Amino acid sequence: xxxxxxxxxxxxxxxxxxxxxxxxxxxxxxxxxxxxxxxxxxxxxxxxxxxxxxxxxxxxxxxxxxxxxxxxxxxxxxxxxxxxxxxxxxxxxxxxxxxxxxxxxxxxxxxxxxxxxxxxxxxxxxxxxxxxxxxxxxxxxxxxxx
Length: 146
Fold this sequence. Notes:
Blueprint: H1 13-21, E1 28-36, H2 50-67, E2 71-76, E3 92-98, H3 101-109, H4 111-123, E4 124-133
Antiparallel strand pairs: 1-3, 1-4, 2-3
InterPro entries: Dimeric_a/b-barrel, DUF1330
């Protein structure tokens, strides 16, 4: 964080305030697209690969995620950018479900999670975290069920 080559790693305060303000009832799905650094960038200079640091994030944050009702509902392995920037790649692609906006907010405020997220910050070169409302699945591409 800080140099011009840093990608999107953490939400801004303004966007997180919008996230909290839309506190509708029901679950949320968070689409995660994560590109890892080759070498993790820990502020204290410790050595690890981006993959090792991200694995540490998963190990340490997992119990908090599960305790608050989170679960992974879809995971995939990136293969090809068919439409989009040809040089873009993602190392982790998954959708995490949270039972509510409050559950996600509680997770990121949890002291154990706040310690674990330091591994994510060291590991991640760039990421996208996109909130979705869960809808029933339509039969065709253009159909958006009510």
